[in-house]
Sequence to fold (473 residues):
Amino acid sequence: MAFYRFRPTDALLDQFEELERQEIYFASPKELNDPLEGFKDLVWSGDRILWENLLRHYLLCLTHAVMSALINGPDHTFAEMEALVFANESLLPTHEYGKLYCRICEDFFKHEDAAALPELFAVRGSPIRRDELTTYLRLLHLHALNTVLTSMEEAALCPPRPVDDSLRAASTKPIAVRAVLESMKVLEREHPDKPDIAEVMSSISVIAALQQDLILEYNGISLKRGVAWKVLISEFPRRHIRALEQLLYNDWYTASFVADPTDASLWGTYGNRHQGVCLKFKAIVSTNGKPTLNLRQICGSNGAPIYGDVAHEFQQVEYSSQFVEVNFFRSLGRLTMPMLRHWYRDATGNPSTSVADILSESDNWRKHYWQQQMTAITTKLADWAHEKESRLTLTGSSDFSNQSNRKLQYHFSDLQGIIFGMNTPTSDKLRIMRIIEGKCRKEGRNDFEFHQAHYSRRAGKMEITKMNLIKFA
Fold:
């Protein structure tokens, strides 16, 4: 069984010397050309304990963000926003900071509307999705921010604000979340034929808020206090929701392969406008019937990295209009059990009934958890179906953030052949042939294949023809 991988010759020969080194590079989602790589249809559904802890966590992250803005100044851009979500009560730096945080939470929930939110969210009839949760956080955000600033002022941790500061009023006015929740319930009850009506209305609200933020920034109004305060006042809820996904799974990386090396559009996109090449790999079928490729990678450490061969299974990409639904509260698998207790238990130690199987470390939960991640990694919109892609993936507890750790070495015996593109320069072909000749002579191979891509008028498409005359005796 063969799998094909397009590469520009610059990556193979000069910039990374991938051919000489026999390396396959595993890219991060941000390096790929689909912004929905690994996308999950995140939902929030749980009991009162989980919702109260989500709001407390929001307050903790907001407190850290305000501290960061005060320390780094008004031009701070919050490049560390994604890291903020790993904040946890057990990780607070000092006892005084812990007391400050407790006071912030107490004052936040003194507001009648805020105190009612955990129970209102818990009895919500349907799961709450990203846009709906973003809408709710925007509605309560100014009260949360004012609570943080007021507590810091009382602790002499920040300069006092003017008496007429516009944020002060946020904690004296009703919070509209209760009314919006009731409206959502009414809409769902009156339109049972439209189960996604809450999502539609929330999306409209989020887009409207984005427009308002753009208008304020365009007119220079939101920037009067500086970039940091623009983020804290206007962008924090949206960016926080996006960052929360970091708590679910370890980072992942992928190397892409295709089933059809005759697709002209793939040559144009991934084969450097037909000037690159396509590598033909021979997969090994494992005992469970799955095609695999052995790659040398970091397997552990004893003070220094330990390398070894690992069989990587080819995963076929599925093309769909729907992404896997993932319940946030039931998918915090990246956190340690001590950290999870701060999510899954209330202040008196009572556990959430919604996650009892996770607290007991159920094998069934763990299996489902990993299946969800692989489904997310291997699902793309139907627009990409023509690629017929398969993937090798790299994830786990090892640190692959360094790009050099994501260059995995394959065995030369598994590289069956190379296909030259229609416009591959002759000079590049000759350099590739010389490298392959050296490797073939070293390993005693005489079965390496060279192919040429060309247009066939008869077939009306690109074809691949084996170059039988090129052999290394």
Remarks:
- Residues 48-72 form the longest helix (25 residues).
- Residues 44-247 form one domain.
